[in-house]
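Duplicate of #3305? Posting structure anyway:
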């Protein structure tokens, strides 16, 4: 049996974690000199509640330790797993992959560690597709190959409707890639942002899986409208919702909403 492991930067929603039995290793998020384990003692809403009109917290994000990965791998072994696929945030942006590789040494079962080459829900997309391949009968190496091949096909777009934004200035539609954020469009308001991102998604081909995410509670409505615009579309096979958790929200701040999309074939 192949066990799956990832890190909390993957933004995997609880339904996908439960469906595929994924072990999620938390990153450390330091807010105003206080350390927290993402998703353990720091939830999403508490994180964004710290962002006030007058002051934003000082936030730093650190990779998990090798010991945390060792504990996660032990949990998979205790469940009866005889092989492990461990998929993680891009090595260009985090030391997470190094800790995973260190923990994998000396384990009594094969561990395939995959550098996804992406971050945020892009990692989640790789886990989602690899888990689906395993469920369909893929071997460890086949599932790893699925995850490694997926990254170039994943697209993402998002907007940040930050508190206090000048509504007359409109919204930039952006896309993330390792080391950079590109502006790919500009719209006059939230409705046009939804339409722009939905149109962009539907133009990406057939048999798409889509993850729609939001950060703070005030961007939930934007994400819900985006989900409604895509659900039931002929070329979208599945839509899931996720939250933009602190390890990503530390860089985006509150008010963010957007999506990741990839072809299943």
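Output from current build:
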């Amino acid at each position: 049996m192949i066990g799956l492991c990832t890190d909390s930067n993957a933004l995997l929603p609880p339904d996908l974690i439960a469906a595929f039995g994924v072990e999620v290793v938390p990153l450390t998020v330091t807010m105003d000199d206080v350390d927290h384990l993402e998703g353990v003692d720091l939830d999403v809403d508490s994180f964004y509640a710290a962002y006030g009109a007058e002051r934003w917290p000082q936030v730093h994000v650190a990779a998990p330790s090798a010991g945390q990965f060792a504990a996660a791998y032990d949990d998979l072994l205790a469940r009866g797993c005889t092989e492990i696929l461990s998929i993680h945030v891009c090595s260009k942006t985090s030391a997470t992959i190094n800790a995973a590789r260190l923990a994998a040494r000396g384990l009594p079962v094969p561990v395939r560690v995959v550098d996804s080459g992406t971050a945020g829900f892009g990692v989640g997309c790789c886990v989602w597709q690899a888990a689906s391949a395993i469920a369909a009968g893929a071997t460890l190496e086949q599932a790893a190959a699925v995850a490694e091949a997926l990254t170039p096909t994943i697209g993402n777009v998002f907007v940040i409707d930050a508190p206090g934004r000048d509504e007359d200035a409109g919204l930039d539609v952006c896309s993330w890639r390792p080391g950079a954020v590109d502006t790919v469009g500009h719209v006059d308001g939230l409705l046009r942002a939804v339409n722009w991102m939905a149109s962009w998604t539907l133009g990406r081909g057939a048999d798409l899986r889509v993850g729609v995410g939001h950060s703070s509670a005030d961007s939930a409505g934007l994400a819900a409208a985006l989900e409604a615009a895509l659900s039931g579309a002929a070329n979208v096979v599945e839509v899931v919702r996720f939250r933009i958790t602190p390890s990503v929200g530390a860089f985006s701040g509150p008010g963010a909403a957007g999506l990741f999309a990839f072809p299943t074939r």
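Confirmed duplicate; merging threads. Residues 139 and 155 are 26 Å apart (CA to CA). The radius of gyration is 18 Å.
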